[in-house]
Amino acid sequence: MKADGDQLRERIRLIDAGEIRPVVDRVFSFDQTREALEYAEKGHAKGGKVLIAMT
């Protein structure tokens, strides 16, 4: 996959329509970025994505 605005817009449309649902394993705060990277590198996130919240 490559960076493509049209692909991203289509995925957003599918998510908004409820046709696909992203699977989130765990959400870390921005201050926990190091922990989030360690968590992902150790293979803990097997069922979904690891997110870092910017708020």
As residue ranges, the low-confidence spans are: none
Strand order of the largest sheet: 1-2
Q: Can you count the helices?
A: 2
Structural class designation: alpha+beta
Q: Mean of residue pLDDT?
A: 90
- What's the gyration radius in Å? 14 Å
Textual characterization of the structure:
With 55 residues, the chain is α+β, with helices and mostly antiparallel strands. It has a domain of 34 residues. It contains two helices and two strands; from the N terminus they run αβαβ. The protein has a two-stranded parallel ribbon. The protein starts with a helix and ends with a strand. 0% of the residues are buried.
Features:
single chain, 55 residues, alpha+beta, two-stranded parallel sheet, 2 helices, 2 strands
Describe the protein's topology.
Elements: H1 5-16, E1 24-29, H2 33-41, E2 49-53
Parallel strand pairs: 1-2
